[in-house]
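QA checklist item 7 of 12: single-chain prediction sanity check.
[x] sequence parsed
[x] length recorded as 576
[x] structure emitted
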Amino acid sequence: MEATAGRLLSAFDTGDDGDLREALVRMEASAQEKPELRALRPPETSLGGLLTSMTGAVLGEATRVDTAALYQLINRIVEVALDVDALADLSLVSIEGADPSVFRRTFRNQLKKLSESIQDVQNQAVALANVPFADAVSTFPQFVRYLGRRMGKDVRIEMEGLDVQIDRQIVDLIREPLRHLLVNAVDHGIEPPEVRIAKGKPPTGTIRVSAVVHDLRVEISISDDGAGVDWDRVAEVADERGIPLMPPDLSPVLFQPGFSTRIEKNDFSGAGDGLPLAREAVEKVRGAIHIYSQRDAGTTATLVLPLSMVLQNVVVVAVGNQFWGIPEAAIEATMALSAVEIETTGIGKTVWFRSAPIPCISLAQAIGSEPPGDESELLIISTRSGLVAVTVSEIVDRRRVAVKSLGPILEGVSHVTGAAMLGGGQILVVLDPHFVGAVARQRPRALSDRPRILVVDDSAGVRQLLSATLTGAGFDVEVASGAREAVLALATNAFDGLVVDYSMPRSNGVELVRALRAADIRIPIIMVSGVASDEEKRAAWEAGVDAYLDKFDLRQGVLTQTLKRLLGIDNAAGTA
């Protein structure tokens, strides 16, 4: 195949193959869009359908908003429009020949003012969808009194942070999980009055419910001063059921479906479904849940949640020359790699954290790439399978970004929860921390065993997104921005498959496919497009594609499924 690709490259450079030369020249000529028009084209925020809005769940629903806040937002938008007009006036001044240094200084100041105004508008718009935490817990005092009467326990409730503002969608999703945690606190935690007196405790137990904002995220805690978790009993039941343990942190076991230390069920608990349901709801909003408990001192369940469904706080990390986002709610700690000692044991690499060994993995290895060799930072991440340590090249930044879900064509990729557009058209792919936790406890598949795919697309954002999703799905991915880069890659490397965009400014995907088939390159080729007509689709099939996918295809995960089918593989490394 490499020899064939070499002939292809040689034909392009020398013109020995007239048909191939003509085809590639036509590709260049047919896409000679004026550069000034390309520069004016706004960035595509959905990447042709590869990304979708995360707000679809509430379309058509009505939300009551404060009228004063609404009009304040409208006034702010008007002010932003005036800031834009001021920038337009500055451009006219530049054309008329103002002093360059004065112009640059004025332009920077005006641009900074506009940026601050836009940030203010964003914050006010997000705030319109917020409700006070009190809306989620207003019935809790009556509910706790009811539970106490039914269970024969004296219990009171204290609530703090009722005025904390949280996205209404998040409040709606966590209301029921919080009730499950209340039931657990009263049923499993608070002892009967006579037992508490015998332990030297007051006969009335106390449950505290609180909401506190930390670093643009909210921590909701439900704590009790009861019996605490019997960790010996947890370990015993887990052993009986064959559930793997990672001592000393046994809390992940509590979230196993159907797990309960209670021998008999009652009307309120014992089925083992309360905590799994709570975790499922919390993870839907990209949050995390932690259980802390001490025998006879009580238990605290803490939900770490974003303040908004639209915006998410992420830690941006570098893996080689690629950036990834990790939800800040999942990060327990960050530190320099030089400050820890990595040990190699029979189960792999580990580091010590909070007096216990935890698995350690390179993030590059977790997503299916070769570790870059320049890793200098370590993150401790909370996952449903326990804490894991992850090494990265660099912790670049902490950002608040608008995360979009993957479109249906890319859905089903287990290691990615979404992606965010950054300035300059860059894409920040957001990792699922639970995927990283699972991979850290598995034996990785060798990179040499992974099918190698070439992705050809003129959009840097699309290339990055496809590379990230396909890498995590078990493929070794290389990218090219157009026909010539693709030809160069094919001339120097062996590939098992090709994913190519239909429409590119300097390359017509159909012409590229036709040229490759003319050069006897027979690897499977998938063409993806969000704009092609029926006639253009027919042209793609006639050129020799093996599959044609619409970027708006509603079949979940159809891209990776199609690649695996064409390559004759059931599953690729990295899928979960």
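[x] summary fact logged: The chain has a mean pLDDT of 79.
[ ] second reviewer sign-off
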